[in-house]
Amino acid sequence: MNIKQEVLAVLDEILSLNGRSASFSENTPLLGAIPELDSMAVVAVITTLEERFGFSIDDDEIDGATFATVGSLSEFVERKVAA
Question: Most buried among 11, 14, 60, 69, by the most CB within 10 A?
Answer without folding.
Answer: 11
